[in-house]
Amino acid sequence: MYRENKLALYRYRPIKPGAERGPAIMICYAMINRPYMMDLQPDRSLIRRLLEQGIDVFLIDWGYPDGSDRFLDLNDYVNRYLLNCANKVCELRGERQINLVGVCQGGTLSLCFTALHPERVSNLITMVTPVDGQTPDDLLSKWVQKLDVHALVAASGNVPVLSI
Known about the structure:
Blueprint: E1 2-4, E2 7-12, E3 24-28, E4 39-41, E5 44-45, H1 46-52, E6 56-61, H2 74-93, E7 98-103, H3 105-116, E8 121-127, H4 139-145, H5 149-156
Parallel strand pairs: 3-6, 3-7, 7-8
Antiparallel strand pairs: 1-2, 2-6, 4-5
Helix pairs in contact: 2-3
């Protein structure tokens, strides 16, 4: 439906006739996971359940990263790819705003997008989205708090892009 570099925005049409005048949802899935997890099989499909409710569903597939992506940064993903997808959904539906569902890392991107473009988002839903990495029971947070990023970067031979 819409493509830009490796990104593909897919549209799933509602199952109910005439339901395309109902609400729409754009799902921003994680870049590191496969978006087909939202539509595994007929009896295990979030997308199918949404379609049965008359919801017009759009799903972002980030594609498979490779070396050509090494120069992309958060700005590219949020203010270019996500914004272009939101604009495309709004254009197709003749609306000014989208309902955005962010899943996992896609939820983090969706939170950033909504903060920067609140005029484009009617409703935001996040699922399994890491937001607070400082919670006491978060094992990964405990590991990272003791990590010397500067020593790690120096040992790898890479030059830091920004200082923390």
